[in-house]
Design a protein that fits this description.
Belongs to the amidase family. It comes from Flavivirga amylovorans. It holds the Pfam family Amidase. By secondary structure, the protein is α/β, with parallel strands linked by helices. It has a domain of 242 residues: Amidase signature (AS) domain (Amidase signature (AS) enzymes, Alpha-Beta Complex), CATH 3.90.1300. It contains 18 helices and 11 strands. The protein has an 11-stranded mixed beta sheet, sandwiched between helices. Strand 10 and strand 11 form a beta hairpin.
């Protein structure tokens, strides 16, 4: 699919559509949708901004490429004056006091936020069922999960309720729902986009990521949000990715894939066969393909969740009903803290906090947490060696197809294992893109750190190959 952003931009300039009509159409679709993707609509502000864009066009003023483009925001981002619920009972009445840096950059470019989107509470889940707003339903088959944790964002893009959406990816939370709903979803290199104003889950792997229907739209939105931010010391200055650069794929010579991912007993037979068929098509284009050795997927999952649970226990310790959220008063302050967190956090969030506190507790931290840190370093070193041999690593996004709504809640371990092919790239802090091709849940394209441009290049190559 060609760029929707560029297409709508031209329509606005040519006055074949008005921005107010465009925004109102999207708001109507969101209001009437039955996929449980909406936490709150930003109707008044969105229409006010749309009217300003129409006035500029009527006055003959130039508008930017993103100006007037309606987009969605996963409900874990701050947008001043709007609800920021994290799809949780604890924060269901909380309003943002400021705006996240990544979102502010889009506002500065003229894009119009129209919806805060449903997701797993605090990003804890892989199905968007752990939410007070009801399970997000898959865009293709509403009996299946929408994926998570950015499920509402993915479904809204897939159903054309938003032109693009901004999700958050910690261990696959943009890439997996993108795969489940047949769209593009990018986890950029860690630090390329500021995390300031994103509710922290696991700070060492949290990334701001765009979801869209084309590689070009991913590129446009990525450029708009990228850059150094004094409010996030992990950020760095990055170069703009030009459209002409990602159309030239001649410098991609070698592709690798992890044979243990494909030989795993957990992978569906059809996904395995489709992936290997895609590999053959890539070979037919003259690209060398190499089999790579890597950590077993269960080691990746256990390492990721060890560290992620430890970090989320620390990050969520501030949420006790005193400074943020709905407080339940009890006989004393300690009991008030206990009952508030017990009643207001979801079962999945409590499971991760308890697990994280155990990992960090005296007697366990040396045995578990420090080993997890050592494994993360080993995983990063393994990636560095791999990218000395190949330009791109290709993998399935998930080992299996989307489960039915309700199944993941019955089996949390199965939900964790659905992240088996995404969490390793998060631990390595690598740029990784889901493309809606090659298998039923797509393919995952990964490059070395800071090579986001190469990921987009190869995605363009795949459009004409598979």
């Amino acid at each position: 699919m060609k760029s929707q952003i560029q297409h709508i931009h031209q329509q606005l300039i040519d006055k074949t559509i008005s921005c107010v009509d465009l925004v109102q159409e999207k708001l109507n679709l969101l209001k009437d949708n039955t996929h449980n993707t909406v936490n709150s609509l930003l109707t008044d502000v969105a229409l006010e901004q749309a009217a300003k864009v129409d006035t500029k066009i009527a006055n003959g003023e130039t508008i930017g490429l993103l100006e007037g483009i309606p987009f969605g925001i996963k409900d874990v981002y701050m947008l001043q004056g709007t609800y920021a619920t994290a799809s949780s009972d604890l924060l269901k009445k909380y309003k943002s006091a400021y705006t996240a840096t990544a979102i502010q950059k889009l506002l500065d470019a003229g894009a119009i936020p129209i919806v805060k989107e449903n997701c797993d509470s605090f990003g804890h889940g892989s199905s968007s069922e752990n939410t007070i707003f009801g399970a997000v339903k898959n865009a293709v088959n509403p009996e299946l999960v929408g994926g998570g944790s950015s499920g509402g964002s993915a479904v809204n893009v897939a159903k054309d309720y938003t032109v693009f959406s901004i999700g958050g990816d910690t261990g696959g939370s943009v890439r997996q729902p993108a795969g489940y709903n047949n769209i593009y979803g990018l986890k950029p290199t860690y630090g390329r986009i500021s995390r300031y104003g994103l509710m922290a889950y696991a700070s060492s792997t949290d990334c701001v990521g765009p979801l869209a229907k084309s590689v070009e739209d991913i590129r446009i939105v990525l450029n708009a949000m990228s850059g150094k931010d004094t409010k996030d010391q992990t950020t760095y200055t990055s170069e703009t990715i030009e459209e002409s650069n990602i159309l030239n794929t001649s410098d991609i010579k070698t592709v690798g894939y992890f044979k243990n991912f494909i030989e795993s007993e957990a992978i569906d037979a059809q996904i395995k066969n489709d992936f290997l068929a895609s590999i053959e098509k890539i070979k037919a284009k003259g690209i060398q393909v190499k089999e790579l050795d890597f950590f077993k997927s269960d080691i990746l999952v256990s390492t990721y969740y060890t560290l992620a649970m430890a970090e989320t226990a620390s990050n969520l310790s501030r949420l006790d009903g005193t400074n943020y959220g709905d407080r339940i008063d009890d006989k004393d302050l300690k009991e008030s803290y206990a009952v508030t967190r017990s009643e207001k956090f979801s079962e999945e969030t409590k499971r991760r906090i308890v697990g994280g506190n155990q990992v960090l507790s005296q007697g366990f931290s040396d045995e578990i947490y420090l080993k997890g840190l050592a494994l993360r370093d080993a995983i990063s070193e393994n990636f560095e060696k791999d990218f000395e041999e190949v330009n791109i690593i290709l993998s399935p996004v998930t080992p299996s197809t989307p489960p039915k709504i309700g199944d993941s809640l019955k089996d949390p371990l199965a939900m964790y294992l659905s992240d088996a092919y995404t969490v390793g790239f998060s631990l390595g802090q690598l740029p990784t893109l889901t493309v809606p091709q090659g298998t039923e849940t797509g393919l995952q394209v990964t490059a070395a750190k800071n090579n986001d441009e190469l990921v987009l290049k190869f995605a363009n190559f795949l459009k004409d190959t598979i």
